[in-house]
Amino acid sequence: MPFTVITEILKKMIKNDKVLLGHGSGGKLSHDLVSDLFVKYFNNNYLDKQTDAAILELSGNQLSFTTDSFVVDPIFFPGGNIGKLAVCGTVNDLAVSGATPLYLSAGFIIEEGFSFEDLETIVRSMAEEAKKAGVVIVTGDTKVVNRGKCDKIFINTAGIGKIETQHVHIGEGSRIKPGDKIIINGSIGDHGMAVLAARKELNIQSDIQSDCASLNGLIQNILTASDGIKFMRDATRGGLATVLAELADKKDFGITLEESSLLVRPKVRAFCELLGFDPLYIANEGKVVVIVDPDSAEKVIQAMIANEFGKDARIIGEITDGYPGKAWINTGIGGKRILDMLAGEQLPRIC
Amino acid sequence: MPFTVITEILKKMIKNDKVLLGHGSGGKLSHDLVSDLFVKYFNNNYLDKQTDAAILELSGNQLSFTTDSFVVDPIFFPGGNIGKLAVCGTVNDLAVSGATPLYLSAGFIIEEGFSFEDLETIVRSMAEEAKKAGVVIVTGDTKVVNRGKCDKIFINTAGIGKIETQHVHIGEGSRIKPGDKIIINGSIGDHGMAVLAARKELNIQSDIQSDCASLNGLIQNILTASDGIKFMRDATRGGLATVLAELADKKDFGITLEESSLLVRPKVRAFCELLGFDPLYIANEGKVVVIVDPDSAEKVIQAMIANEFGKDARIIGEITDGYPGKAWINTGIGGKRILDMLAGEQLPRIC
């Protein structure tokens, strides 16, 4: 059998005609699903950019518009719950696009028999977080499905923000250049490990707290402190590694990360080692990756440190002209490892 | 035992601490859930109005913003599928607020193992319907949950429209006066009965078609034809009766409907009689209730008839100064019956 025929057979075997958990991972399969299906059919300039928020022009104003559904399991975890997460997630997607988040919608899908007390706790958290973030939940919808047809509660939030013309490029990262510094506002892996540890079936005692937070205040501070911000992205599903691999993909620059500069809290590290996870691929819900010109790095870090969610801000790597299209990490023991997008799914229903 | 004590005990027995299917019905329980929980905690002027879309002011522009989640079962039915429905539903919510629908978001929650072929069909329908309606799907999100944790696929759409100042009052109906005419663009009950008939467990052979359609074209036509439009609302969950009962509630006018003027297709009527449903409470997905000053009624009907989705447009009732706060129907046999909001749930997962 010629090699090409074998290849075709293999391809057919690998080709899967069912949706897998990995298609919702935020990694490679999600990326492919978006490219192959949504961009293909919905076919427009906004989606082509594959940023988390679309930038719309409306009578001379630039708006940022985004949506996210939340299916986290369990719905309550140390540091937050599905409601707080639904507000923070959309606020952050707007903020990293360079926008000031203003208005949110909230769509609830609730399982018949869900407790009103829990619903009230969730709604109260959403209200509190919206107030903190300075956004208003202006419209909503509730659907109830028969028992067993969804898992407790799913929440979708969509959001609208206003974006000043000078920040429109930030979501795309079109001004990134070799030499630019990569900054993050603290430790990685907290959210994913907090949620995982909260799953009863693991029977783990842990006090790992999710980092779930609305970062629009911090982001406003750094945008005020410096006009050298080239790119921002919240490192949620797929983790820090996926954000950087996706950013480098098909670009004429490379990315190098310094493992020794990364902050992983000891409990998160221990838990990752125990279960065989790589913290670089674990979801965060209060971490923003910022790429800045080298002269602005110190100013940006100082602005972050002045904010409650940026105390551990640090430079973790830089943009290089070597290895274009790839993200690499210099490991603690002197090696060099490539960072690919998350393949498959490490942790389903983490957000 | 004094009567007040018995009343208190009864109240406690009735008070339910679990979410019921009826809380998602679009009727009385939904109304109470929104008032008691969402309006209470999210507490702002936008939600207080309890319209389907919020009207936002942004740098001198008026925007309409709305969201809806779709959990219809089955996901494919005669006349549409969950994807087409998700586009039409949000387009219509924007259009009845007086806005020109412009941009949609799409959030997918998909069950692991869902077929890619079905997903592609759904996404293609969304793209086609968006094109027809002249809106662009600009941003999206996909979550995949483990098998058995949702029912095939749920879709949330949120939408942004632009609204001209002279139409801002339309969603609220603040200019309604006794003597105004109530108009609908055709038959009632088609969507609900089409979906119900498509449920395999009923084992019914039926060719009832859902009326699922984007009505923004028709609505644009009537707004152009007349400046006498006082109110518009799409009669979805809870049906025509719930829209009118909700509108009359706490107002200083009454509403009278003429049963003999309503169009219920023979197959829909037969199916309703068989199963004991009242077509007045059955969901529509392509019907708009319009209240106009009496002088504009004929112009509005002519504009509707000129549109493919308004061929059977007709006056079905009027605003009265008698019976304020209530909606009534003059029945075919000369009686008079009060129309209350849908209590409980007739048909779960109809949209």
Give a quick rundown of the structure.
The structure is a homodimer of 351-residue chains. The first copy, chain A, has 351 residues and is α+β, with helices and mostly antiparallel strands.
Structural class by helix and strand composition of chain A: alpha+beta
Question: Briefly, what CATH class of the largest domain in chain A?
Answer: Alpha Beta
What do the pLDDT scores of chain A average to?
92
**Largest interface: which pair?**
A-B, 83 and 83 residues
Assembly of the depicted chains: homodimer
| Rg calculated over all Cα atoms of chain A | 20 Å
The appropriate CATH architecture of the largest domain in chain A is Alpha-Beta Complex
Query: What would you give as the CATH superfamily of the largest domain in chain A?
Result: PurM-like C-terminal domain
Termini Cα gap of chain A: 47 Å
Largest sheet, spatial ordering of strands of chain A: 9-11-8-12-10-13-14
Helix content of chain A: 25-40%
Any low-confidence stretches of chain A, pLDDT <50, length ≥5? Answer: none
Q: How many strand units of chain A?
A: 14
Would you write up a description of this structure?
Two copies of one chain form a homodimer. The first copy, chain A, is of the alpha+beta class. Chain A folds into two domains: 51-166, 2-Layer Sandwich (60s Ribosomal Protein L30, Chain: A), CATH 3.30.1330; 181-339, Phosphoribosyl-aminoimidazole Synthetase, Chain A, domain 2 (Alpha-Beta Complex), CATH 3.90.650.10. Helix content of chain A is 32%, strand content 25%. Chain A has ten helices and 14 strands. Chain A has helices spanning 3-14, 28-42, 45-48, 82-96, 116-133, 190-197, 216-225, 239-248, 266-275, 297-305; strands at residues 54-58, 61-70, 76-77, 80-81, 99-111, 136-145, 153-163, 181-184, 229-234, 254-258, 288-292, 314-320, 327-330, 336-339. A seven-stranded mixed β-sheet of chain A has the order 9-11-8-12-10-13-14, with helices on both faces. In chain A, strands 1-2-7-5-6 form a five-stranded mixed β-sheet, covered by helices on one side. In chain A, strand 3 (76-77) and strand 4 (80-81) form a beta hairpin. In chain A, helix 4 (82-96) packs parallel to helix 5 (116-133) and helix 7 (216-225) runs antiparallel to helix 10 (297-305). The model of chain A has no long low-confidence stretch (mean pLDDT 92). Chains A and B meet through helix 2, strand 1, strand 2, strand 5 and helix 5 of A and helix 2, strand 1, strand 2, strand 5 and helix 5 of B.
